[in-house]
Amino acid sequence: MVNRQSTNRLEVKLTKQYSEQSGFSLDVDLHIAHTGVTALFGPSGSGKTTFLRCVAGLERSPQGTINLNNEIWQSRDFWLPTHQRPIGYVFQEASLFPHLTADENLQFAIKRANKSHAIITYDEVIALMNIEPILSQYPQQLSGGERQRVAIARALLIQPQLLLMDEPLAGLDDVLKQEILPYLEQLCRRCRIPILYVSHSLDEVIRLADYMVVLNKGKVVEQGETQNLLGTLGTSFSKYQDASVLISGTVEKQESQWTLSWMNFGSQHIVFKQGNEQLGDTVRLRVQSKDVSLSLSKHNDSSILNKLSVVVDDMEEDQQDPSMVMVRVLAESTPILARITSLSAHNLKLKKGQSLIAQIKSVAVLS
Ligand SMILES: Nc1ncnc2c1ncn2[C@@H]1O[C@H](COP(=O)(O)OP(=O)(O)OP(=O)(O)O)[C@@H](O)[C@H]1O
Known about the structure:
This is Molybdenum ABC transporter ATP-binding protein. The protein has eight helices and 20 strands. By secondary structure, the chain is of the alpha+beta class. The chain has two domains: about 10-230, 3-Layer(aba) Sandwich (Rossmann fold), CATH 3.40.50; about 245-365, CATH 2.40.50.100. It has a six-stranded mixed β-sheet with strand order 7-8-9-3-10-11, with helices on both faces. A five-stranded antiparallel β-sheet has the order 2-1-4-5-6, covered by helices on one side. The longest helix has 17 residues, at about 175-190. It starts with 8 loop residues before the first strand and ends in a 7-residue tail after the last strand. Bound molecules: adenosine-5'-triphosphate. Adenosine-5'-triphosphate (ATP) binds near residues 45 and 46.
């Protein structure tokens, strides 16, 4: 069962219709890099969960083909049952065994783990999810966020080659979401297991995903690296009122007196509120288009700390709100979006290739 042509990626070709009456059909042909975090993003009912369940073998797509690296999971005449697919699955609700403690739940996974393909150790998982203090508790003694952290730990201890996560934060309130998001970020950044992450929250996807696949009505409408997609005009993302870009760089300076960090990218830098990052860390900052203003010259008499030298690359009128335009500027090769009024664009006589200063308030930069 070896297909020599496919390496290091997940190839999924699926068609699925639940019934004629439902009006929904999934029709996708995707090649996903078997590395990092790929988010399946899209509105409710777009087919994200159906896609994930097909990959897991929990749902059948009779004409479908699925293979991971050189291994066929499904073809016209072959079907690998779910329990033989090297996957971990995290659902919306943590589905822990209620009669077992957190640690007994983990031991259950360890017994079923793929021993020949160990990727992560028990100690690493416990540290990553910070669950040492709650290992002796039963699920009903844990908060929703703690239960979900144990459920993620259990999925990791299966030693999966692919981790499937279906809206793991959807069942949690906003406070618990904020509590668990940093753990997911750690998992996504540090863990060597590729992740398929389903969400309809743009915020979550921006924080976690390296790649994005956007589904609508069962079809793939956009896909690519998160950073590229967010920085491109004409996508569904540039039409969001809170359209953002991600800028990656290295922490070069920190001034604890002001609790600020400096992130260098190319020959420029962005100053932002200090968080947990350390000197030398690679960080990814989110800059919302509404927090970027454009100016013809550099002003040194304002409170704004970030003044980047940029060049106008593209512009898009807001179809919903004619008083606004989205301007894509490049800071060297890094795209930044600025949502400004059409009047300002007119007054500045903006045109492609024009040199400008992009101003970003430090307090508005999200790390
Ligand atoms: N077992 C089923 N039988 C019939 N129709 C189904 C079944 N499961 C899902 N559907 C339908 O398939 C479509 C896609 O559902 P799916 O759950 O995959 O979407 P989703 O993008 O994950 O949505 P959400 O974000 O709300 O979870 C929906 O119209 C849904 O009603």
